[in-house]
Amino acid sequence: MNIGDAAKAAGVSAKMIRHYEQTGLLPEAERSEAGYRKYGEREVSVLRFIRQSRRLGFSMPQIAELIGQWGDTHRTSRQVKAIAERHLADLEEKLREIVEMKSALEQLVSVCAGDDHAHCSILENLAADSPSAPNHSASFVKPKRRGAKASTAHSGVAEKQTTSHLDLMTWMRGVHVHRGAH
């Protein structure tokens, strides 16, 4: 079967099949005389195995290790279980982190008035450890195109160079900060 047929049969995209071949997770396909990839049931089985493993959140190196175990007739189930247990421990740690993030965010949201005033306790809490407090009169202007230089003035106000954490983060996103003189 061709790559499209194999993708359909395995429930993955043709792009992912190429990616799996490039990373070595799937052996490079045989080619027809016309240069088209040819796949058989074995490759489709491996693709389904990869798809199922990805659904469970296994990383590509873990999947490679599992495929190696799958093809090893001398493996023990203990070896495979150890891989799954390590992954389970990683998932449990990620879950703990997500629960902590959710709890912290719930606290921030609960103390925010969420009204028409400029004061925002969420922003204050997020900026709590910043080296300098942001100037609330800052206006954020995106350049017309990526990499474009910002004008030296915005509404007649000269741009000041700063070294605050906010300015660095803003600059990294391609947004330029123009501060008003107060």
From TrEMBL:
Major localisation: cytoplasm
GO CC field: cytoplasm
UniProt entry tagged with the keyword Transport: no
A Pfam family this chain is assigned to: MerR_1
Gene3D superfamilies cross-referenced by the UniProt entry: 1.10.1660.10
Keyword terms: Coiled coil, Cytoplasm, DNA-binding, Transcription, Transcription regulation
Coiled-coil annotated residue ranges, if any: 81-111
Top-level lineage group: Bacteria
Ranges of residues in domain HTH merR-type: 1-69
SMART domains documented for this protein: HTH_MERR
Example of a GO MF term: DNA binding
Gene Ontology biological process terms from the UniProt entry: positive regulation of DNA-templated transcription
InterPro entries given in the database record: CueR, DNA-bd_dom_put_sf, MerR-type_HTH_dom, MerR_fam
The name this protein goes by in its record: Cu(I)-responsive transcriptional regulator
Gene name of the encoded protein: cueR
